[in-house]
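Entry:
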Amino acid sequence: MKNETLLIWILTFGGIAVIFAGFLLFLRYLVYGLVDRRTLRYQSDLLEKHCEEVQNMYRQTRGWRHDYHNHIQTMKAYLTMGRIKELEDYLNKLDTDLTTVDTVIKTGNVMVDAILNSKISVAASKGIVVEAKAIVPKDLAASFTEVDVCLIVGNLMDNAIEACMKIQQEGRRFIRVYMDILKGQLYIYIMNAVGDSPKKAGGVYISTKNREHHGFGLMRIDKVVDKYHGYLERQHEEGVFATEIMLPLAAPVYGNASL
């Protein structure tokens, strides 16, 4: 009788253990499934946003082409009428205007150029003043993937733009970007104006730009920096927020750009 009771208990506990193990496997599958779906939605949103940014740059390019055609016609008219002094004045004004509207930045790295110019174009369309100076290695493959660097820069610029758009006074909106090679590391520094103080959870800054992807962009940045054993610091003072990142480089090749 005791043996039968012991066997029943063993079978019972064994069954419970199997059910519990199955439940853990199911829970793990569910969690990974949710993370994968969240990642896919996040990537889909990024792709949609990138398409919008490209379309915005395309519209600007079409506008510049239209203006360029008008400028040519005006200068031809001055030349035909022999009004050389007016033509010279017009050329001087045009030169000043072109210097003012030039928002193209060349860092030395094609992919970083693409993401920075895309975000700068978006910022400009929203009345945000951007100051940018960047030196980036032409080839990052020996150190880390260009995709990871663009992920960092893209997310930081998105957060900066979102923070600026919460400021009612357009004249107070600004973003400053600085990238350089310092002590064998890629240095990334982005500072932007803020209205309200950034929110924190457990001593960690969190993003509020999208409830569905609450803090997901910041988490991705943290993971990339950790992946390459880099350095990351976020700082907040009254009216400004800054992120400082350093990623170790293997063999830098220099480029140069400023805005």
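The chain has two domains: 2-99, 103-258.
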